[in-house]
């Protein structure tokens, strides 16, 4: 893990990610704080192959770009897209106010694109989805029951699944 100053235009942000949601007043305060004291917390990025991929700090990056900032402070961690997405969902969930729809999209991407099973590896049986909607009751759903979670490709083309918990 390294602290670097980078051009904010060089950071690539995944299309599917969880992003903090601000009410109007809080977002105004955030913007005023950035103008008054600058960036306090570094943006978290992963070095994925030759790309610098943003994990946390999209609003800080956007504000730096809007202000014409040439550099931003970034913590760079080596990893892959599974690291980016699992850390993204974990960090945003810790802060609260995470839109469930964004979390479902990230979990679906981890399942479909990165071969992670959303069911816990604790040996416990997943809880069923609500019979009245595609929204799961508290806890995990069985793959294929939650309609927004894509089905896996045929096993001959897919590496064995690992638990999403193991990736954290």
Q: Main traits of this protein?
A:
2 domains, 168 residues, Conserved hypothetical protein from pyrococcus furiosus pfu- 392566-001, ParB domain, two-stranded parallel ribbon, alpha/beta
Structure description:
There is one protein chain. By secondary structure, the chain is an alpha/beta fold. It folds into 2 domains: 1-98, Conserved hypothetical protein from pyrococcus furiosus pfu- 392566-001, ParB domain (Alpha-Beta Complex), CATH 3.90.1530.10; 99-168, no CATH class. It has helices at residues 24-37, 58-66, 81-95, 100-114, 164-167, and strands at residues 2-6, 11-12, 43-48, 51-56, 72-78, 116-117, 162-163. A 5-stranded mixed beta sheet has the order 1-5-3-4-2. A two-stranded parallel sheet has the order 6-7. Helix 3 runs antiparallel to helix 4.
Q: Which percent range describes the beta-strand content? A: 15-25%
Helix content: 25-40%
Poorly predicted spans: 122-158
Number of strands: 7
CATH class of the largest domain: Alpha Beta
Kindly name the structural category.
Answer: alpha/beta
What is the second-level CATH architecture of the largest domain?
A: Alpha-Beta Complex
- The strands making up the biggest β-sheet line up spatially as 1-5-3-4-2
Q: Quote the distance from N terminus to C terminus.
A: 16 Å
List the helices and strands and how they pair.
Blueprint: E1 2-6, E2 11-12, H1 24-37, E3 43-48, E4 51-56, H2 58-66, E5 72-78, H3 81-95, H4 100-114, E6 116-117, E7 162-163, H5 164-167
Parallel strand pairs: 2-4, 3-5, 6-7
Antiparallel strand pairs: 1-5, 3-4
Helix pairs in contact: 3-4
């Amino acid at each position: 893990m390294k602290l670097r100053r980078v051009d904010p235009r060089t950071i690539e942000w995944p299309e599917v990610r969880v992003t903090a949601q601000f009410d109007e007043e809080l977002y105004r305060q955030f913007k005023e704080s950035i103008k008054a004291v600058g960036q306090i917390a570094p943006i978290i990025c992963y070095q994925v192959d030759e790309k610098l991929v943003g994990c946390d700090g999209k609003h800080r990056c956007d504000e730096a770009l809007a202000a014409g900032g040439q550099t931003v402070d970034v913590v760079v961690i080596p990893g892959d897209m599974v690291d980016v997405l699992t850390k993204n969902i974990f960090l945003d969930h810790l802060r609260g106010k995470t839109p469930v729809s964004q979390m479902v999209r990230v979990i679906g991407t981890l399942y479909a694109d990165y071969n992670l099973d959303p069911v816990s590896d604790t040996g416990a049986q997943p809880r069923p989805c609500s019979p009245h909607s595609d929204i799961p009751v508290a806890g995990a759903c069985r793959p294929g029951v939650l309609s927004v979670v894509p089905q896996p490709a045929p096993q001959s083309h897919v590496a064995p699944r690992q638990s999403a918990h193991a990736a954290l």
